[in-house]
Design brief:
It contains 6 helices and no strands. The protein is an all-alpha fold and 170 residues long. The protein has a domain of 109 residues. The N and C termini lie far apart (104 Å).
């Protein structure tokens, strides 16, 4: 009887732990972006390229984007730009408020800490939104376009060979 109670308790505990691992600590459901099988090797390069090329829009011709893809990427870029401009303006206001707090005769350190945390939270929020936007842009491309983008990265990173220089004779 004890053994069956112990086994039942162990099974219950393991199922609770499994369930607890599926949700983030704050109770929200886990958010994931499915990039596809084998994408883990090229995703960092694609994300970097997406950032450097305005969400792949500057490579539209090389990647042969369809009109629907171009429109989707333009919308992703616009939404991110609008969000980041607004939030970074909020951060600038928080920074100005922080400077104001620091120019008083009696500095309230709790208020200073709160203001620094507010400014850093905005910066973090903008960075997370940027990552989400780049991931959306990556998922808007086809696998063939992913491979073409990786090829473009490699071409840009490989130093070009210079033609041999001849000696100038006297």
């Amino acid at each position: 009887m004890r053994r069956s109670i112990f086994v039942l308790a162990l099974v219950t505990l393991s199922s609770v732990l499994t369930f607890a691992q599926q949700k983030p600590p704050d109770g929200r459901p886990k958010q994931e972006v499915q990039l596809g099988r084998g994408m883990s090797l090229i995703a960092p390069g694609l994300m970097q390229l997406g950032l450097e090329t305005s969400f792949f829009l500057r490579l539209a011709d090389q990647l042969q984007l369809a009109d629907k893809q171009r429109t989707a990427l333009e919308e992703i870029a616009y939404e991110y730009q609008k969000y980041s401009v607004q939030r970074l303006a909020d951060r600038d206001v928080a920074d100005a408020e922080l400077q104001r707090l620091l120019t008083r005769d009696n500095i309230d350190l709790d208020a200073v800490r709160a203001k620094v945390r507010e400014a850093e939270a905005i910066t973090t929020d903008v960075k997370i939104r940027m990552i989400e936007a780049v991931l959306k842009a990556v998922t808007a491309l086809t696998h063939e376009q992913h491979l073409k983008a990786i090829t473009l990265i490699q071409e840009l990173q490989t130093p070009k060979e210079r033609p041999p220089t001849g000696r100038i004779s006297d």
